[in-house]
Specification:
This protein is α+β, with helices and mostly antiparallel strands. It is built from 13 helices and 11 strands. Strands 1, 4, 5, 6, 7, 8 and 9 form a 7-stranded antiparallel β-sheet that branches. A 4-stranded antiparallel β-sheet has the order 3-2-11-10.
Amino acid sequence: MKIIKSFDKEMKRVNLDCRIKALQGLMNHYGVDISFYMSMILAKSVTFHYGKIDFDGFPASDVPFAFGSRAHVEEKFFESLGIEHKVESIDDSDASWEQMKRLIDNETPLLVKLDGNFVNRLSSDHKPDEQGIKLGYLSTMLLVGYLENDKKYVALTEFVENERIVPFELEKFQKARNSVCLPYLPKFICMYLDKEIDSKKLSEEVMKKTLESLKTATQIMLDPTSVKDYLVDDIIEEGFAYKNIQNGIPAMKQMHQDLKNVLAIYESFNEKILILIAQLLRSNLSLGGSSSFRLEFGEALKELGVKLNKDEFGAIGDEFITHSQIWKKFVFNLRDMARSTNPKECLQNAVEIFDTVINNEEQLFIKLSNFLIALKL
């Protein structure tokens, strides 16, 4: 099996965010040592987006739908570091497979987008074209090798915590790259670096760029309209539409109001549909340890405080870690709507808890913003 040399031994995953691990591994391959948590800040991955989704086969329209982290963090990561990169839809044709092999032969790893639900079943008979609502999430992995004998295989960085490279059948790999996981589709997207980078210079600039990214991420939460290049536009794809998208704390407040409105006229809804809507909302907000990555963000701030010898970052990080437990209570109440004999009570609890989530989060980001301003970046 051909394996890119720097991936002979895979690094252990700090956290179950495959996107950040893949970015960290890519940078390490090019000689830039960036930790998992600093990569997370550089990707501006912790945020909040809220809108309404319509899609074929669902018995309701204008369904509340939220994300605690942007799906396409890779673009923001490269932008933060000023790295030019290639984004290309490399399909499942024989010619495209030859192109992938040439890149690997040239020691060029590829970031690949995959249907996350399908990836977790690559060794099973799961088929990505099954009937039903195909709501899921995108996984990002590094394609770092291949094997051709009686069957064709690709070598990917592991998507769990093991320190190993995992071979997958090429056919299953290709299906996972063109499946459906609303509201994002992998569409055969690949990213790779096609130009040399100055690893020494970039390594020297990482901390400055990390602080700049943290400042921008804080602005996105507190005043999203001031960061125009970050705003998420409406997403219209065949079979679904994700629209009226808002960002940051204002988006959280809008979602809270919408849930309060639903609760006020709860009896006028079909309860089974409300429970299904709650599970759709929960599906994305439960990522990141069921805290929308707030726990990880707290850990990132603590690491930043150690690196810079700034206790204030560590203190705010500890507060985010405590805050993440309240996020979990909110997510768990949405989950429990499908289990409880009193779903309305679970929704009532979720609405009350989310009010606390918003207040805490706004105060924490204000505190973080004020400290960053005091640092005079």
